Amino acid sequence: MAEIRIDALLPQEMATRVEYLGVRKAEMPFLKMFMLAVLAGAFIALGAIFATTVSAGSMTVTASGGETAYTTGFPYGFNRLLTGLVFSLGLILVVVGGAELFTGNNLIVMAWANGKVTGRALLRNWAIVYVGNFVGSIGTVILMFFTKQYTFGSNSVGIAALKIGVAKVEFGFLQAVALGILCNALVCLAVWLTFSARSVIDKIAAIIFPITAFVAAGFEHSIANMYFIPYALFIKFFDPAYIATVGDKVAHLDKLTWKAFVLNNLIPVTIGNIIGGAVLVAAVYWAIFLRPGKD
Fold this sequence. Notes:
Blueprint: H1 11-26, H2 30-55, E1 59-64, E2 67-72, H3 76-87, H4 89-97, H5 109-113, H6 119-147, H7 156-169, H8 173-194, H9 200-217, H10 222-238, H11 240-246, H12 258-290
Antiparallel strand pairs: 1-2
């Protein structure tokens, strides 16, 4: 009779499972892979919507003695904690609902390093999933724009969305890479931890703290930014009447452009995400648990 275990899988078993699933992901047919990637882009965007809404209206600006004074409903750290907590919805939907996320798929490197997946198959998966994530994110941006949800809360949701977009395109290249590295190290650790899970509740519990940590700390996730920044851009360029109303409440709005989105954020953050996920997590765990002759 087979032994029934309710304990979480041990790291060695987790590594074997990641390798097995990495092979399955790399061999997935194009259409299925792409559709699951579109879903993942939309799922992460839903987490971003939740986070933007929760963070809205957390800061008011008042003039004091000719200077600008800032007051918040919650302390900065607590507000970031709440924002990160609700953003966890995105990866929960990806992992439990089943979808293909580029940043999480950096873990396929464990199967590649052991020769179970070719370099071509690895890059094929990353390319298809990355494009699919973008399609899902932009599709959600378009739908959300037409809801005009950004006008809710006396325009506070839209102001928050614009501020988030502006902040994300003001990073220097190296800073964005570093923020991307730390972000995907935590994202891939969250996915890694779910491989120890025996139940849905286990998976959710494993996801929440690493994802909350990366958002609270202000790290950068390329797929989330495929929603955050384009959403702000849509508001800026396709609702000039709204911008005329709230534009004075968002500093440096002129810096929010499609070019800045790609060059200042998407490219360096993607590079950082690959380093953080593929090197700092996947390669390290491969070396510890799967490398030939490791014992």
